[in-house]
Specification:
6 helices, 291 residues, three-stranded antiparallel β-sheet, 13 strands
């Protein structure tokens, strides 16, 4: 029933191949970018999403240039709402950009929908800020990375966490990501899953939201390397097969359970954008059919 209802409300319209913009992004930049063209590359990524999504409510994004360390290109936090009027599923968190689209009204006035942190470490990160998708061999394509990060902010994100052997949904805290801080109040997640999490499935076909939360069995599934995602549009885009999710044997907060599996969708695969790693010299300016 959940699948058929989500299909019926038809929240997202794909407009691949057209420059029509059915959504507006309002972007605020904080901090110093690595070069004068960097912010334009981020805006170009937002324009790509604006030609894919349909929402009557502008999507408010704060992009902060921040020293994230040598191994991180970007980190994104979506604002969230649950149990709003017209929410398809109760006791479930939705990214506010998605929730606003569902209701056709702004549920979070005065707050950003998405906080994106991009690494401005010029010593360790060589950004390619052109718009043509042609980075050098040692460069990271900023349009691709920004497109990926905005994808998380729009709803390609879950609330999984693991401490020791115990896995949980809805126990993430802002302190888990110190020293980063969101521009909006961090919500009390109350052990509730995100809508993305409700479609996570074990290899046994057991839905992860049906597993005790928090629990060691849930933690085992998080690191099983066998997680799948079975949302109806994802299944359609993958030819009826469940979508493999990144769930390595060592849990990595911010990477595990919230990306497509790297080895299943490698570089040059049309679905590579939402995998956890971005290789220097690689570029992809389209989210891919599954995403």
């Amino acid at each position: 029933m959940l699948r058929s209802f989500l299909r019926a409300i038809a929240l997202i319209v794909i407009l691949h191949g057209t420059t029509t913009k059915a959504t507006t992004f309002d972007i605020t930049f904080i901090g110093t970018p690595p070069d004068a063209q960097a912010n334009a590359a981020v805006e170009h990524a937002a324009d790509i999403w604006a030609g894919i999504l349909v929402s009557d409510v502008p999507i408010k994004v704060r992009v902060a240039w921040f020293p994230l360390g040598a191994g991180t290109l970007g980190i994104t936090f979506p604002n969230g709402r649950k149990d709003f009027i017209s929410a398809p599923v109760a006791a479930t968190w939705y990214a506010t950009a998605l929730a606003n689209s569902i209701t056709g009204s702004e549920l979070n006035p005065g707050e950003n929908d998405i906080d994106v942190f991009l690494n401005n470490d010029e010593i360790n990160i060589d950004w390619y800020t052109g718009l043509d998708g042609n980075p050098g061999g040692g460069q990271h394509d900023l349009v691709s990375v920004a497109l990926h990060e905005l994808g998380h902010g729009l709803g390609f994100v879950g609330l999984a966490k693991k401490i020791g052997t115990e896995g949980s949904f809805g126990l993430l805290e802002m302190a888990d990501f110190f020293p980063l801080m969101t521009s909006f109040p961090w919500p009390e997640l109350d052990t509730m899953p995100g809508i993305f999490d409700r479609f996570l499935q074990a290899s046994t076909q057991e839905m992860l939201v049906d597993v005790p939360n928090p629990s060691a069995p849930l933690g085992s599934f998080f690191t099983s390397n066998q997680l799948r995602w079975n949302g109806p549009e994802g299944l359609l885009a993958s030819g009826g097969a469940t979508v493999r999710i990144y769930s390595p044997s060592t849990f990595a907060l911010g990477s595990s359970c919230v990306h497509l599996n790297e080895s299943t969708y490698p570089n040059s695969n049309p679905n590579e954008l939402m995998t956890p790693f971005s290789s220097p010299g690689d570029a992809n300016h389209w989210p891919g059919p599954i995403c």
